[in-house]
Every structure is written in structure tokens, then in C-alpha cells.
Design a protein that fits this description.
By secondary structure, this protein is of the alpha+beta class. It contains three helices and four strands. The chain has helices at about 20-40, 50-60, 60-80, and strands at about 1-10, 10-20, 85-95, 105-110. It starts with a strand and ends in a 23-residue tail after the last strand.
């Protein structure tokens, strides 16, 4: 897993995350297991279909898309913790490259807590105005 961090204006950070096929293969098997529970395949009990048969029956691209839905939240959360980013709200995720057998690349735009620099309050002077009381 490769993570690149880029600072953006308006208190945002862009993370570009690249996963090799070896990195996302466990998620493919998890997606195949989930798909086999809901898909009826002749000769097999639900949830007991081997990975290769699920891959042939459903299609590698559909299986990869399901795996991406499973892996993006986990990988993004780990990347935010690893880079020590104090995020605010939900990140915006864009898939850059999604093809079976190739690296998976996605970008996430994360809002962060803005840095605040306080002025030297000791240097501020206030002129006192005389108070006059009239009848």
C-alpha cells in the first residue's frame, strides 16, 4: 500500500492510495464469500462456493467492485491514522483506476481541523475614554 499526501487550500488534504493486487486479494475473497451467500449457484450450498467458481459466475469486475466497497473504508481509516490526520466529517472518495489484476488507485479528499494562529494579545492596547456625566 502506497499513500501520498497533498495539502489543498481551505483546510483540506488529498490522499492518493495505491493498492497492489496482493493488498486487495483478501477483500476479493471476502466479497466472493458474501456474494456466494446471496447468489444461488447450482451444486453448491449458499456460502460454500469456491472462489474461482464465484469469480466465473459473477464476473471478476463485479467481484472487484464489491471488494472495493468493502476495502475503501478500512484502508482509508488506516491511512488517516498512519498519516496522523485530524479529519472532520466524511471524506470524498474518487476511484482513479479499477481493473482486474492491476493496481487499484483511489483519491480521498479529507477536511481537516484548520490551523489557527493567535495574535499577541499583550501587544494590543486600548485607549481609555473619559466618562462624563451630565444632568
Amino acid at each position: 500500500m502506497n499513500i501520498e499526501q497533498t495539502s489543498l487550500p481551505k483546510s483540506q488534504v488529498e490522499l492518493t492510495i495505491t493498492l497492489t493486487p496482493a493488498d486487495y486479494e483478501p477483500y476479493l475473497h471476502q466479497a466472493a464469500e458474501e456474494a456466494s451467500k446471496h447468489q444461488i449457484i447450482a451444486g453448491f450450498r449458499p456460502g460454500k462456493v469456491p472462489f474461482e467458481i464465484v469469480k466465473k459466475h459473477i464476473g471478476e469486475t463485479a467481484l472487484l467492485q464489491t471488494a472495493v466497497d468493502l476495502l475503501v473504508p478500512k484502508v482509508l481509516a488506516r491511512a488517516i491514522v498512519d498519516k496522523k490526520i485530524e479529519s472532520i466529517g466524511q471524506p470524498e472518495v474518487d476511484l482513479e483506476k479499477l481493473a482486474p489484476g492491476n493496481d487499484l488507485i483511489f483519491k480521498a479528499r479529507v477536511s481537516i481541523i484548520p490551523e489557527i494562529t493567535l495574535a499577541d494579545w499583550r501587544a494590543i492596547t486600548v485607549e481609555k475614554k473619559p466618562i462624563t456625566i451630565e444632568e
